[in-house]
Specification:
globular; Nucleotidyltransferase, domain 5; 11 strands; Tnp_DDE_dom; 3-stranded antiparallel β-sheet; IS1182_transpos; alpha+beta
C-alpha cells in the first residue's frame, strides 16, 4: 500500500531545523521551489492501494535519488549521510529522530517503480515549467550539442569488473594498514563468476569486521561501490558487461564505449530537451526531436545554435519550414568542395573546368535527382588521350583508366541560403553563445558523475540522465532567481 506524505512527521524536535537549516540553505530553497507532489501523481499506479504493507513514500524515495545525484555518492553513502545531516533530513521530510531507509530500497525503487516511466521528458518538462513560472527563462534560442558517457563496465567481462573493484578496495586498505593483507581470503584461480562473487563477499566481510579500517572514508567509499555493484547489478553481471553500449567517436582518432546524451539548452543555461542514445548515433539526426521536445515543454524556439554536425540538409529544411534560424556552419565539403582549389579551376566563359595542365573539359553531365537525397552533381569529363601523355598526370590520372572526370556538388537552394546566412552579423554573434553548452556538459560530467554510467543498459542511462539534468536545472533556476 502507498500513503501519500503530505507534511513532515510531527516531532517535538522539529524546531531544530529552524536553527541548523537556514533559509539560504540550498536544500531548503529546493524544497520551497519545487512541488514534488508530481512524483506521487506519476507513480501512484505503480503501487498496490489495497494490499500489503505501507510503502515508503515515493516522494521521499525520489528525493533520495536526487540527493545521490547532486552530491555524486552511492546508495549506501546517501542513506548514511541522511542519518546525521539535518539538511538531508529536512529535505526528505523526516523528523530529526526518524530512522532512515535501507539502501537496498533504492535499488527496488529504481527497478520496480520507475520502470516504464518516461522520466527524462517528465523531469525536464517540469524544470522548464518552473523556469517559465519563475520568469527566469525568457529567451527563444536553444543551443544543441551531444556529450558522451562511458559505459560502467567499459567492455570488461563480469569477472574483470569485480576483480577491478576488489583491487581498488584492497589498495585503499593497504595505504592504512598493509598487515591486513594476511587476513584477506585467497584469490580465486578459476574463471567462474560465482567464485569471484564468493571471493568479493569474503573480502567485504573481512574489512567490515575491522571497524577501524572500514570507517576510513577512502575505504568506505570503495567498499560501498563494490557492494552496490554486486547487489544492484547482479543480473547484468551474470548476463553481459553492457549489451546496449556501443562504440562512438569523439574525433577521427579517439573513440569511447558507451552512450550519448543529446541536449538542447536555452541561453539562460537551462536544459530544455534531451535524448539518450547508444554511442554510435550521429548528432545531427537528433536535432528535430530536440526542437520538438523543447517546444512541447513550453519554449518558443526562434533560433537554434549548433556545430556543423547539425547543418545537414534535412535539418536546414526542417528549421526553415518552422521559420527558425539555424546557426550552424555548413560542412566545408558543401561550401568548398572536397578537392583542392589548385587542381581544377572553373572557366566562366567556357562554362567548363580546366585542369592544372591547362586542358579544358570536353563535356559535362548532371547526376542525381533534384531535392531527393544527396545534392545533385555536375561531372566534367576530360580528353583521356591527353591525360595519358600529360607531364602532370602523376597523382591526377590513374594509368589504364578509360576516363578522367571531375565532379562538383550543386548546392541546393537550402544550402545556398544557409551559406549566405552564415556570413551575416546575426549568425556570427549567435555563434559565440555555443560555448555555454560545453560548460554545461562539463558540469554534468564532473560534478554529477555523468562521465560514467551508474548501471548497465540504455534504460539505466536514461534514468541517470533524467535525474542529473533535473538536478542541474534546479540549481541553475535557484541561481538565476537569486
Amino acid at each position: 500500500m502507498i500513503l501519500k506524505q503530505t507534511e513532515m512527521m510531527l516531532s517535538p524536535y522539529s524546531g531544530i531545523y529552524d536553527i541548523v537549516v537556514p533559509k539560504d540553505n540550498f536544500l531548503r530553497q529546493l524544497n520551497e521551489l519545487v512541488d514534488f507532489s508530481f512524483v506521487y501523481d506519476e507513480l501512484k499506479d505503480k503501487y498496490c492501494h489495497t494490499n500489503g504493507r505501507n510503502a515508503i513514500d515515493p516522494i521521499r524515495m525520489f528525493k533520495y535519488l536526487l540527493l545521490k545525484t547532486i552530491f555524486d555518492v552511492s546508495d549506501v553513502d546517501v542513506v548514511e549521510r541522511s542519518k546525521y545531516d539535518m539538511s538531508f533530513k529536512y529535505f526528505l521530510g523526516m523528523a530529526p529522530e526518524e530512522p532512515v531507509i535501507e539502501p537496498s530500497s533504492l535499488t527496488k525503487f529504481r527497478k520496480l517503480r520507475l520502470k516504464d516511466i518516461n522520466l527524462l521528458d517528465l523531469l525536464i518538462n517540469k524544470t522548464v515549467e518552473i523556469a517559465i513560472e519563475t520568469d527566469v527563462l525568457k529567451s527563444h534560442t536553444i543551443i544543441v550539442d551531444a556529450t558522451h558517457t562511458k559505459a560502467r563496465y567499459n567492455q570488461k567481462s563480469p569477472k574483470e569488473i569485480l576483480m577491478d573493484r576488489s583491487k581498488k578496495l584492497r589498495k585503499a586498505v593497504y595505504t592504512i594498514d598493509a598487515s591486513l593483507k594476511d587476513e584477506f581470503p585467497a584469490k580465486p584461480t578459476s574463471n567462474e563468476l560465482k567464485d569471484e562473487l564468493d571471493y568479493t563477499q569474503k573480502l567485504i566481510d573481512v574489512i567490515e569486521a575491522n571497524q577501524t579500517i572500514s570507517e576510513y572514508p577512502q575505504v568506505k567509499e570503495k567498499m560501498n561501490l563494490l557492494k552496490e555493484t554486486v547487489t544492484d547489478d547482479i543480473e547484468q553481471l551474470r548476463i553481459s558487461e553492457d549489451e546496449d553500449a556501443r562504440v562512438g567517436h569523439k574525433t577521427r582518432d579517439t573513440a569511447f564505449f558507451g552512450y550519448k546524451t543529446h541536449l538542447a539548452m536555452s541561453e539562460e543555461r537551462i536544459i530544455t530537451a534531451a535524448t539518450v542514445t547508444t554511442g554510435e548515433k550521429t548528432d545531427g539526426k537528433q536535432l528535430q526531436s530536440l526542437i520538438e521536445k523543447s517546444m512541447a515543454a513550453g519554449l518558443e524556439v526562434e533560433t537554434v545554435i549548433g556545430d556543423a554536425a547539425y547543418s545537414e540538409k534535412a535539418n536546414i529544411a526542417f528549421t526553415k519550414g518552422k521559420n527558425m534560424a539555424l546557426v550552424a556552419k555548413l560542412n566545408p565539403s558543401v561550401t568548398q568542395g572536397n578537392r583542392r582549389k589548385t587542381e581544377f579551376e572553373f572557366n566562366k566563359d567556357a562554362g567548363m573546368y580546366v585542369c592544372k595542365a591547362g586542358h579544358l573539359a570536353v563535356k559535362k553531365a548532371r547526376h542525381g535527382k533534384k531535392n531527393i537525397g544527396k545534392n545533385q552533381t555536375n561531372t566534367y569529363y576530360f580528353d583521356v588521350e591527353k591525360c595519358k601523355v600529360c607531364p602532370l598526370r602523376d597523382g591526377c590520372y590513374k594509368p589504364g583508366a578509360k576516363s578522367k572526370s571531375y565532379s562538383v556538388s550543386i548546392k541546393s537552394d537550402n544550402h545556398s541560403d544557409q551559406a549566405k546566412f552564415q556570413e551575416t552579423e546575426y549568425f556570427k554573434e549567435k555563434s559565440k553563445e555555443r560555448y555555454k553548452i560545453e560548460a554545461k556538459n562539463n558540469e554534468l560530467k564532473h560534478r554529477h558523475g555523468y562521465n560514467i554510467s551508474k548501471s548497465s543498459g540504455l534504460v539505466g542511462m536514461q534514468m541517470q540522465g533524467a535525474v542529473a539534468i533535473f538536478a542541474v536545472n534546479l540549481k541553475r533556476i535557484l541561481k538565476l532567481r537569486g
